């Protein structure tokens, strides 16, 4: 039986395991609460490989939400996240340092366009070949993609190219080496900044390394995830090599650009507008061009703003009158857009607004 999410409402999950992956990353496993398990024999989680969930924890009396890619596969009785320590990263560091096995947290349903179900590998010359390309903690969703293909016995030739500082800093190092040793359809290429003590090459990923490590690059569908500069450089290198970018997919937790101060100055006069949220009895004054999510949060309204990048959908709200300018409509259906739903993190205010949240 599949775990039932509650639409856009967060549900409680409990941490059932937590362990070190590398000196600065840990994996945590999340399962339904025991009360839910008692009612049902076994629960499986369903999602598309590559997707993420948004988790919420209370830190200093305030709920904080962040999106994390799933590193487990569909059909398991738990979800797994792999979290890297981030300087000043409130939620990540809380999950690493404070969350204990047995503790619960809030979670929103799996989401995300970066997945191998909506974007399966393209068949070229009668073969389906994928290149899973990652750096650092960006390994998480592509690792899930590889594991799911292998678990399903999928007809996909998988090359896994990961860039890391060293073998010690490579998340899932042992699991990847064992997959490479036992699975014929899986090839591992690690490119390390410091390869000492390993047989893996040392270098920095550029066009030459791409061609050398992946000779049949042009026949592969590429799935890319990693730090934003790495993704930008890799995207540009693929383009420069003449790669067919229709066969290229990437994850991005990088904030989409909303109206910048200077753009705003060009576009609108500096004007105050009102934002009313009737159900909460609130009407606040905001600056035209302000980000809707910032305005709602500043008013103390219970809006869940997880990724701040227009990708997780947690900040969905409905504009019932007035207009906003949106830079992302991801996760919204055509019907929802028609009804006036927007992503508050990716919408700037253009006029007086009436908004519904929750
Ligand atoms: S916070 Fe994720 S879409 Fe707005």
Automatic annotation (TrEMBL):
The keyword NAD does not apply. Residues 271-358 form the 2Fe-2S ferredoxin-type domain. InterPro entries: 2Fe-2S_ferredoxin-like_sf, 2Fe-2S_ferredoxin-type, 2Fe2S_fd_BS, Beta-grasp_dom_sf, Cbr1-like_FAD-bd_dom, FAD-bd_FR_type, FNR_nucleotide-bd, MRET. SUPFAM superfamilies: 2Fe-2S ferredoxin-like, Ferredoxin reductase-like, C-terminal NADP-linked domain, Riboflavin synthase domain-like. Residues 8-117 form the FAD-binding FR-type domain. Pfam families: FAD_binding_6, Fer2, NAD_binding_1. Keywords: 2Fe-2S, FAD, Flavoprotein, Iron, Iron-sulfur, Membrane, Metal-binding, Oxidoreductase, Transmembrane. Its cofactor is FAD. It is an enzyme of class 1 (oxidoreductase). GO terms for molecular function: 2 iron, 2 sulfur cluster binding; metal ion binding; oxidoreductase activity. It comes from the Bacteria. PROSITE patterns: 2FE2S_FER_1, 2FE2S_FER_2, FAD_FR. Its EC number is 1.-.-.-. PANTHER family: NADH OXIDOREDUCTASE HCR. In the N-terminal section; belongs to the FAD-binding oxidoreductase type 6 family. This is Flavohemoprotein. It comes from Vibrio scophthalmi.
């Amino acid at each position: 039986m599949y775990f039932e999410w509650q639409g856009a409402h967060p549900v409680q999950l409990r941490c059932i395991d937590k362990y070190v992956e590398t000196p600065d990353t840990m994996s945590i496993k999340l399962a339904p609460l025991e009360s839910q398990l008692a009612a049902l024999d076994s629960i499986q989680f369903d999602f598309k490989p590559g997707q993420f969930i948004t988790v919420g924890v209370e830190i200093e009396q305030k709920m904080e939400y962040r999106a994390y890619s799933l590193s487990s596969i569909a059909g398991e009785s738990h979800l797994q996240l792999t979290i890297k320590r981030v300087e000043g990263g409130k939620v990540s560091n809380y999950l690493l340092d404070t969350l204990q096995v047995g503790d619960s947290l809030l979670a929103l349903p799996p989401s995300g366009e970066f997945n191998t179900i909506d974007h399966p590998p393209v068949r070229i010359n009668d073969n389906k070949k994928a290149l899973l390309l990652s750096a650092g903690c960006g390994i998480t969703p592509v690792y899930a993609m590889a594991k799911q293909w292998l678990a399903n016995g999928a007809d996909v030739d998988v090359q896994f190219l990961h860039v890391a500082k060293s073998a010690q800093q490579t998340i899932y190092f042992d699991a990847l080496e064992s997959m490479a040793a036992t699975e014929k359809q899986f090839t591992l290429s690690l490119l390390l900044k410091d390869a000492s003590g390993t047989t893996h090459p040392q270098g920095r990923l550029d066009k030459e390394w791409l061609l050398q490590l992946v000779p049949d690059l042009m026949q592969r569908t590429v799935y890319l995830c990693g730090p934003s500069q790495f993704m930008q450089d890799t995207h540009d290198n693929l383009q420069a090599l003449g790669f067919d970018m229709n066969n290229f997919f990437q994850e991005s937790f990088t904030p989409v650009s909303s109206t910048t101060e200077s753009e705003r100055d060009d576009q609108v006069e500096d004007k105050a507008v009102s934002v009313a949220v009737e159900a909460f009895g609130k009407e606040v004054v905001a600056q035209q061009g302000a980000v809707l999510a910032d305005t709602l949060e500043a008013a103390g309204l219970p809006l869940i703003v997880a990724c701040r990048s227009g990708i997780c959908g947690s900040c969905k709200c409905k504009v019932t009158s007035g207009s906003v300018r949106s830079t992302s409509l991801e996760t919204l259906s055509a019907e929802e857009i028609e009804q006036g739903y927007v992503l508050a993190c990716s919408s700037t205010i253009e006029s007086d607004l009436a908004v519904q949240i929750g």
